[in-house]
Structures are given as structure tokens and as C-alpha cells.
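Two folds, back to back.
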Amino acid sequence: MPAESLETRDRAANPAHAFRTYDPRLEPIAAKVLAQERLSAEDGLALYKSPDVLAVGWLANHVRERMHGDVTYFNVNRHINPTNVCVAACKLCAFGRKKGDPAGYTMALEEAWTAAASGYSEAVTEFHIVGGLHPDLPLEFFLDVIRGLKERFPKVHIKAFTMVEIAFLARRAKLSVEATLVKLREAGVDSMPGGGAEIFAARVRSIICDHKIDGEEWLETARTAHKLGFKSNATMLYGHIENDEDRVDHLLKLRALQDETGGFQTFIPLAFHPENTPLDHLPVTTGLTDIRQIAVGRLLLDNFPHVKAYWQMMTPKIAQIALRFGADDLDGTVIEEKIYHDAGATTPQGLTRKELCRLITEAGRIPVERDTLYRPVTRSEESFTVAV
């Protein structure tokens, strides 16, 4: 009998009996997880510090399968980065360029609209749009980008602008965050990505991204977006100068806001890539760190529907393993990812639907194509439909 069937049978008969660990700190945590009780900050620290990463992964996989069974989601999306010119000088970033830098670029409107349609023949269901904090581009430029995309691709969901970008655009336009979000929605923005959260701890943020909004303003911007009806994702950048306490603090602040608004769809842990950044003396994360972060995120964020193993950051191979450590989503086809490749990522620029399905199937999971709101997508030879 395949291992999958044995695990399913044991879990159904007696999940507590199936759990094994040589770390006694995990026993009371396992009892909470199996009883569907919320974990504490102390539990989170124990999960990070436990040497028994397989037991931590077992618990996260138990939660993942309770919520999603064997289903693993992906989508057909395209990343568009309209500019890399940025007023910030974050030590974590290899993407941004100062105004006047020969390596800086800013797309004209037609370039952005052309980029959306180029690269491959598969019809996208999502445009993922983020970029630098350009000192000269007004809010109207970005509204025009969105309007043009909606006019040309009316069926495509537009997931655009991080909380950092929204707060910056609001300040430049001398508008409130709420008024800025209303304008973006009227132009055609449907939801938001989760970038820019980094680590909320002020000590860490003052070193790695002191030019960005602080953690509380990121959360407040997300709160406003959610109250207006937007869905968003949430990220955490790990593997730089943060410690376990910082990570737990970050996760619990996300959980608290989710309790309040219910607006987060997916948690996305992002491994720091130090190459080509001022922090290039730091080591890259290990595979063990990557899969542990997926697992702890799944266990602490009990109110987040989804946890994503972003294959661009952790490589397709580690992302496959993460599907047994709590992740139920691999992101999508992406096509021409710039931000992490500027920081030395060696993963492919994009994957096809066929390649994503193979990764998921070989991990013993069931691939399900979704749209941005996690509605199943059904494709024919010429078109696609979204279940509503």
C-alpha cells in the first residue's frame, strides 16, 4: 500500500497515535494541533527551536490535509514590474535603482500593456504588478496602467501594488490611503499582493528597510484595504538578521489582523537572497530553514486559508517538499520574474502549466488550477472559465 494511503488510514483512525517525536517540547503542541486549538507565542518559539523538523512538518501537514486534502493550487499569471527606480535604499533589495542610474528603467504605458501580452501563449488569469517607489511618477500614471490593462484584458484579475507602494502613492498624491485605494479600485485593481511586510520588528526594519513604512503602517494599510473589500496576501522575509522571536511576533501580528478583517488569502514566506545586496555577506537559507518556515507558518496562522511555497524563491525542488510541510499552493507560471533574480535567484524565470502540474503530481498531490480568489479554472483548447 502506498505511504499516502497508510498515512491517511492512520490519521483517520487515531491522529494522536500516529504522531511521533523525540522532542518532548512538541508533545503539548501536538495535542493542541490535533484538538484544533490555537498555538501561543511560546509554542511558535518551540517549533522554531525544535531539532525534530520532521515532527514539526508532520503537524503542519496534518493541518494542511485537514484543510485541503491532497489538493495543491497554482495559477497562470504574469509578473509586470513597471519601474525599478526607487527612492528607498533598502539593504535587502537588489532590484531598486536610484533616479539617473543607467540600470534604472521605467516602462511607458504602451510598454506595460505590451509586456502583459508577451512571453507565451497560455491565457493568464492574473497580472501581478509591483515595482519601485518612483520619485516622479504620479498616481495617475499607475491608474492609467491599470485602466489600459482592464481595457485590453477585461477577464484578467489585476493583483497590484504592495502596501508600501499604496502608502507611498497616497503621500505623493496628498490623499488618504482609503481615497487612494478607492481610485485604484475604480481603475481596475482587484486585489493586492503581500510584499513589503518583510519583518515587522522595529529593530530589524530599521536596519534592512528603514526607508519603507514601518510595520504598524503596513498593517494599517492592509486593514484599510480589507475594510474596503480587497483581498490581499501577506509575506514574511526571513533568513537575514531576524531571530525566532521576530518571526513569531510577525506571524502573530498577521494572525491578529486576520482575526479582525478576514482579508488575507495566503501567507507567503520569502527566503532572503543576499547576493547583489548590501547584506551579501550573509549566507543563503538552507532547505531545512525553508521547509521549517512553511510548517511554522501553517501551524501559527490557523486563520489563513492558504500557505504558499513560492517556487521562485525556494526552488521548485524545495517547493515540492514544502507540499508535505504545510504548503497547499505553488504560485503560478510567473513569466519573467525580476525582483528576486536581480538578487541572484537561479530558478527559471517562469514555468508552464504542464511543468507545475508535474511538480505537484510527483509530490503525490492533486494539481488544481485556480484564479486569484481560489476559484477553480477549467480550460478548453481556446479559452478558460472560472467557477463562481
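---
second:
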Amino acid sequence: MWIQKTITLPAQRRGFHLITSAVTRALPEIDSISVGLLHVFILHTSASLTINENADPDVRVDFETAMNHAVPESLPYVHTLEGPDDMPAHVKASMMGASVQIPVGGGDLKLGTWQGIYLCEHRDHAGPRRLVLTLMGE
């Protein structure tokens, strides 16, 4: 079975936002998959996706702090037409990645106990974000 859907997440403030439940709500077909794979791809260049700790909200704050330290807005960027946060957002998105893959089995995502899917929003005033969800399995 192959299923592909595009979903739109509401605009979020800059930071790291758990979206695991939004992804699974959009794909009730996961319940019927005994073995498979879910590919999640973001259709944007200034936001990214990752999988990490889903329990302690301090992790989200520390991610934002670390990314801002690694990619400061104060560098002399050439691409500045869309504001001072735009080029750093592109760099962060490239570093974090545009997709994640999650094994599916027994009708559920095979994430670890403390793992969740994150939307990494790197812009100060971003709009809604679109994701392509591709579920394959049997």
C-alpha cells in the first residue's frame, strides 16, 4: 500500500514544535500497516524537520539556543531581501534537513519512548507550513 497526503500545519512562532500527533491524525491508515515506512517531507526552505526528545520542553529551548549560536543572524549575509532572519533560516534548515523517515509496524510509528517529530521553525514570522506524508507498507 502506498498513500501520499499533503497537510498544512498552522503558522508557529520561531522554535521547535512537536508535530507527531498532527502527522498521525492525518494518516489513520497507519493502523492497518504491519510493516512499513513513513516519509515526512517539508515543502519549505526556511523550516526543517527532525526527530528528538519529546518529553522535556527544555529540550526545545536548548535546540533553539544551540541553533542560534551555531548560525547567528549577525553574519554578513548577502541574501537579505526577506529580512535578517531569512538567510540564517535557510542555513539552519539545510543543517537540520527537509525530511525524516520513521519505521511503521503493528499499526503504529516505531519511535523510541522519548522520540517525537519536530517542526523546526527558523523564521520569526513564518506562515503555515506544508508537509508531504508518504506512507508505504503492508
